[in-house]
Input
Amino acid sequence: MRFFSFFCCLLSILMPPCLNAAVVKVGSQQTFKTVHEGIFAAHDGDTVLVYPGLYLERNIVVNKAILLKGINYPVLDGERTYEILSIRRSNVTVEGFKVQRCGHSDMDDLAGIKIYDARNVIIRNNILDDTFFGIYTQFGTNCTIENNKITAYGSGESDIGNGIHCWKSDSITITNNTISGHRDGIYFEFVTHSVIRGNTSEKNMRYGLHFMFSHNDDYISNTFRSNGAGVAVMYTRGIKMINNLFENNWGDAAYGLLLKEISDSYLSGNRFINNTMGIFMESSNRISMEKNLFKNNGWAVKIQSSCDGNTISHSNFIGNTFDIATSGSLVMNKFDYNYWDRYEGYDLNKNKIGDVPYRPVSVYSMIVEGNPAAMMLFRSFIVTLMDKTEKVLPSIIPENLKDDFPLMVPVKL
Output
């Protein structure tokens, strides 16, 4: 008998809370009229079901392990004053709400939905409209942010926060979200072992994606389009960027992708189309880039002399104003087995590899690098003459910046 009592006690401890879960209903026609009341009445493992309506409630705090679910997108309105949803407990799911008009503050990072030091939180299938920060996680672990539409209308970088902002977090999954109108679409700082996949970040004021000091993260099949300065990756190691689209990022200081002090990383299958610069690299080392497309950019790749040990291979360079530009004469990077649409060599043995090396840096690009005003001579006869002369008598372009195995046909990506 004593053993049986012990067994029942142990079973009650180990039994998942969801087996005793209840549904707490919130709405104008329900027992509980406000979301605050519904959460207060719920227990861990319960579902708080919120019916359609407008809920003007000051900073809803989720402090229980519940499913908070909206029916037909009930509206949680912060009246431009408050943070709307503050999640302060692990094992919480929030889905199916329209979250709008959270407060703006110069002192606090107010958000439509904010996760505070919690694990296993899921934020999915929500609409966030006119928020300061959209979805924010600090000290989050193993959290998922998916299928949300996040839109803001800031007029300047200081007037608005980031769409999805993650700080000092680990194992975050961000998938299939649409973000626009924010300062940065997605922002990572001190975030590790995380995945950003299938998101569209466009028309943000600064960067579509911005991350610093965030190691061993993967960025897969995202679209970064028409943002102020493209995507910035800084002070980071061990990243993988695969099958992303960087498109229509134009401006004096714009690029598809900035790599600043990045090391030991891998880029493959990415498309850089219609950017001022496809990739700008500074003080970046041991990066392998293969099977990428650079099409119709101002500069396809601008690689500073501070970069070392990088490899660009099996990529297509088509229709760019300048394929490669560099700031110095010493180049310690490899450019092999790429397709260059300007290559004028030949292939006598028909192995689809050019028999003479291709030098992707033109003398004119070297002049423009030191004297930007020289761009006014673009398409002039003197520029053509300089480049032709340099091919016959090389003197300015770096001797070892060349593709010894240029491909005769584009790479199938």
